[in-house]
Structure formats: structure tokens, C-alpha cells
Fold:
Amino acid sequence: MKNCIRLVLLILLPVSFSLLACGNNEGQNLILKANNEWIKGKNHSAVEQFKAILKKYPSDQFAEEALFRLGEIFHFSLNNSKQAITYFQEVKKLNKEGVFGFDAQKYIAEIMEFTFKDYDQAIIEYQHLINEFDQPMKHADHQYRIASIYIKKQNYNQALAEFEILLERYSESIRVEKVHFKIIETLYTLNRCSDVQDYFKHFFEIFPGSKYLNEINFILASCLEEKGKLKEAYSKFKLLKNNYIYPILLEMKMESLEKRIKKK
Structure:
């Protein structure tokens, strides 16, 4: 997975050169040479060259890119994410408002969540992305990550609150439909089936042709089962046959209901 991400990053490397508009050809050439070493897989050589750039240009935009690339190399190529975070933090200290500041903070948040699984710190880092950077089109994504982390922590009530914040603050986000679905899913997890029913009516009014309808109908059928309405639940599950994304789970549900109905 990291190798695939690294390939994408390498394709995008030339973009940064046009952003370094200080007219220093020597510095640009040094950055280009170091990046080329990384592209060739010569990670340790690239590291040494970026460190040399830091010594030569300790406080300008060449240093920003050198620190940022060192963070990427240590995270994606050298499997040393702890050291990578140190470099990304240095990028922010040098110039949080610069070309690489936002992406450095995003890496920190993602490493905390996905690599270290330090969920409490990840929430803090995603909140920094929302509070400290003028990237309004991306705030909904980071708010979604915060809500998702609370689900990982099994703090479902707080996850609901975070999803609701997203809907309130970022109502134009492309994530809105999915967030409404996640709220239904979370309500079911909290055993709030009556709320699921009410929320689904609201959801269906807004998204009558939603791609999540089959998954929501599975939840509604599960609520019927929990209420003891076994035949109604079975009929609703049966309607999902050949359409549900987890057919094995659906089959298990139906077989279990068939046995329970026969016993009655």
C-alpha cells in the first residue's frame, strides 16, 4: 500500500518545483537531484542530499521542501513514521502557512490514526487541520475522520455528535449523504431502533434513490427482528436477496430467522 502511495507522490513531485519561485537555480537543482534519488529508490542517498540542502538553506522554502520530503521518505520508504512526524512538525514550525504546511499536518493526523492508532492524538491533529488552516473545502473530510475515530473508539454517542457537527457546518459537502447513512448505522448500534425508523423517513425524503438504501433496509429488517416481528423481518430480508453487498451475512440472517419461525 505504501509503495502505491509513494508512486503517486513521485508523479506529483514536479508540481512543487513551479511553486518555488525564488529564482535560485542552484537550490532548485539540488531539490531536483535529491528528489530524483528518491524516485530511483536510493532512499539513503536522497536523505543525505535533503539534509545537505537543510544546511545550505536552513530557513527558506528549499528547507521547507527538504523537511517535507524527508518526512515522506521516512514514512513511505524507510518505515520510520516516528521520525517522519518529527520532520513534518519541523515543516510547520518553519512555515505553517507555506506550500507544505497543510500537507505536513495532514500526514501527522493520518500517521497518528492509521499507523500508530493513537486515536486521541489523531482527533487533536485533525482538529488542528480544521482550526488552523484556511482549507474550507477539506474541513468536512477531517470532521468525518474525527467522527469515524470515535466509532473506532466505540464512543458512538460522541460519533453521532461529530456527524451532526459535519451536517450543520458543512451542509454542502459531498459527504452529506454518507453521513446521514452513518448516523442511521450508529443509531442502530446504540439499539435506538425507533430513532432509526424516524431518521430513515427523513433520509428517504432527501435521498430517495440513495446507494445506501439496501444497507439501510437491512438495518430496518434487523430492527424488526429485534422487536420480535420475525415474519416481517424475514420478508424484508428476502427482498434484499441478490442486491445486498454482503450476501453471506444476509443468508445467515435468513436461515436463522427460518429456524426461529419454525420453532414458534
In short: Residues 17-22 have pLDDT under 50 and may be disordered. The CA atoms of residues 109 and 167 lie 22 Å apart.
